[in-house]
Amino acid sequence: MKYCFYFILIFAFGCDQNRDSTNGTTLEVPGTYKIIQNEGVENADSYIELNDSTAVVYYLSESSNHPFVLHNYSINNVDSNNYLQLPLSTNRTFLIQSTENGSTLLYPTFGSKDTLELEYQSKKWKLEDIEGSWVNSIYLEREKSSFPPPPIILDSIDESALLPWPPNIVLSKDTIIFNEYISKKSSIQFDPSNQLIKMSLYRPFQYYKDAVWKIKSVTDSTMIVDQYQFSLDSLKTYVIRDQLYKKQQ
After folding, report:
1. Contact present, 134 and 246 (Cβ < 8 Å)
2. Rg of the chain's alpha carbons, rounded to an integer?
3. Do 131 and 242 belong to one domain?
4. What domain count does the chain have?
5. One domain, residues 51 and 98
6. How many of the other CB atoms lie within 10 Å of CB of 176?
């Protein structure tokens, strides 16, 4: 079976005399790549995160049913060329080549002849700037009385046991905690560029979960994030952009 797979790859590219080959081009692992062209999801902000044994394909769009999907993948060398096996769009196997401007091209071996261009994402943010306790700007701009009262389900809980106002988010390298009257917690995973955070955070009293955060900017005092939230009612993804302020210790 292994040799049959190699034969198919060699045959597919041996028949295409118009494609120049750049031998030995591969992908950095671990590493994150932005997909410049992606026909799989309309208007999606798409990325591939390659880890040692699994790949994460991000489809960051309100038209996406799932903000990210996990896949097994492999990079195989045939005739001094490297091929990526990973289901993207309608294709599964791609020849890996480099361009003069430093990006990477994935040429599909079968089906559509449209190539995918990948742009390597270097580390964008320092983890120490992201870690800490954060407050959404809306809670700093308005009085507590302008927000809805605590859910009726909390009536049986002594008020002194509820968490203090305003709600806040605590981020560490592997955990997120959302504090709003009570606490909800999720493990998290940063991608190699520190701009994408995977999680499964069910916020208190909400019918949706935060699946992916994309950090747009971060300083020692502010952070802007796009939050990709999956609704348990509509089974759709919604994008919320928030500005957060770091709480001073």
Report:
1. yes
2. 22
3. yes
4. 2
5. yes
6. 20
Give residues with Cβ within 8 angstroms of 61, minimum separation 6. 41, 42, 43, 44, 45, 237, 239
DSSP 146: G
- Contact predicate 200/209, CB 8 Å: yes
- pLDDT tens, 77-118? 998 899 999 988 677 899 999 988 888 999 888 766 678 899
Q: Which of 234, 188, 181, 222 is nearest to 205 (CA)?
A: 181
Helix (H, G, I), strand (E, B) or coil at 195: coil
Q: Which of 101, 120, 139 is the last residue of a domain?
A: 120
* Spatial distance between the Cα atoms of 155 and 15, rounded to a whole number of angstroms: 72
Measure the CA–CA gap between 219 and 245, rounded to whole angstroms.
10
Which of 120, 142, 159 marks a domain boundary?
A: 120
pTM, to two decimals: 0.85
CA–CA separation, 52 and 50 (whole Å): 7
- Dump pLDDT digits (tens) for 21-52: 445 689 999 999 999 865 554 557 899 999 99
CATH number reported for the structural domain that contains residue 90 in this entry? 2.40.128
Across 5-123, the runs of DSSP E, i.e. the strands, are: 31-35, 45-50, 54-60, 68-72, 74-78, 81-88, 91-98, 104-108, 116-120
Q: Is 203 in the same domain as 227?
A: yes
86 shares its domain with 133: no
Q: Which domain holds residue 73?
A: 2-120
